[in-house]
Design goal:
Elements: H1 4-15, E1 20-23, E2 27-31, E3 43-46, H2 54-67, E4 72-78, E5 94-103, H3 104-108, E6 118-122, H4 126-140, H5 145-159, E7 166-173, E8 176-186, E9 189-197, H6 206-220, E10 225-231, H7 235-243, E11 247-258
Parallel strand pairs: 3-4, 9-10
Antiparallel strand pairs: 1-2, 2-3, 4-11, 5-10, 5-11, 6-7, 7-8, 8-9
Helix pairs in contact: 4-5
Length: 261
């Protein structure tokens, strides 16, 4: 299993697909000028050894993001848990996130029955990508449909770039959108991101089948280890990933706060 620094490097690779990155005195800053209201494209990854400087780093980020007209400050701190940061970080604005990883070959060998009646494929044409956009808009819900559409259009430019190993995978049943996820390949590592199964299709094995398809695609791309992230209180997802052989490799804290507070 790769060490933590390798996973963090892969996270940098992922964020850099969408955002300009630059080094600050507190850590690595990411800024996506094309979709500034998407906080996971616009954030600071605070160096773990600068936790004691969180207040100063946060104030610097507030000033920077305000200058860009953005609405939130988002800071990621790796290899820690929220309860260990109480002296430095306001707990009300934090959530614990677990990075989980598994060997691609080991997961590919699992003999799990495929969910019946579904079709899973890498989106390869405009019609497939439109299905992916529709899934995102339904998953985000009516108040956020515009944001979901803009977010998907931002990512579509990356999906369609043949020089970038970043794919969108969709799941349908009888032509009806069911779910989707993203897959990024960074040499020997594969990252699965944004796994969604729409309401009305959950608890039917579709999420398992979607993940297994993504891992199979990672294996086809010669990846050796696959990883993903999940909020620590998302017990159903943790159970699913554990069933597939994923194990926790790192804990992180994500701090998010509105600039209007």
């Amino acid at each position: 299993m790769p060490d933590r620094s390798r996973f963090i490097a892969a996270e940098h690779c992922y964020s850099s697909l969408f955002a300009h990155s630059c080094r600050t005195e507190y850590g690595m800053r990411y800024t996506d000028a094309l979709i500034p209201d998407m906080y996971c494209h616009n954030y600071l990854r605070l160096d773990t050894d600068r936790i004691r400087d969180f207040a100063s780093a946060c104030e610097q980020e507030r000033s920077y993001r305000t200058g860009l007209g953005q609405k939130t400050v988002h800071i990621v701190i790796d290899d820690v848990r929220a309860d260990t940061l109480a002296s430095y970080v306001p707990a009300a604005y934090c959530k614990d996130v677990i990075m989980m990883a598994a060997g691609v070959e080991e997961v590919s060998r699992l003999q799990l029955p495929a969910a019946p009646g579904i079709l899973i494929r890498v989106a390869q044409d405009p019609a497939d990508l439109e299905i992916g956009a529709l899934i995102d808009m339904r998953a985000f819900g009516e108040p956020f449909r515009d944001f979901a559409r803009r977010r998907f259009e931002r990512r579509k430019a990356v999906y369609c770039d043949p020089a970038i190993a970043f794919e969108h995978i969709i799941c349908t049943r009888d032509g009806e959108p069911v779910g989707n996820c993203d897959l990024m390949i960074d040499h020997e590592l594969a990252k699965i991101e944004d796994v969604d199964i729409l309401e009305g299709h959950q608890h039917r094995g579709y999420g398992t089948s979607l993940l297994l398809h993504a891992v199979t695609e990672a294996w086809r791309r010669k990846a050796e280890t696959v990883f993903l992230q999940v909020e620590a209180d998302n017990l159903p997802a943790l159970g699913l990933y554990g069933k597939l052989g994923f194990k926790a490799v790192m804990h992180s804290v994500q701090y998010t706060r509105s600039l209007t507070e």
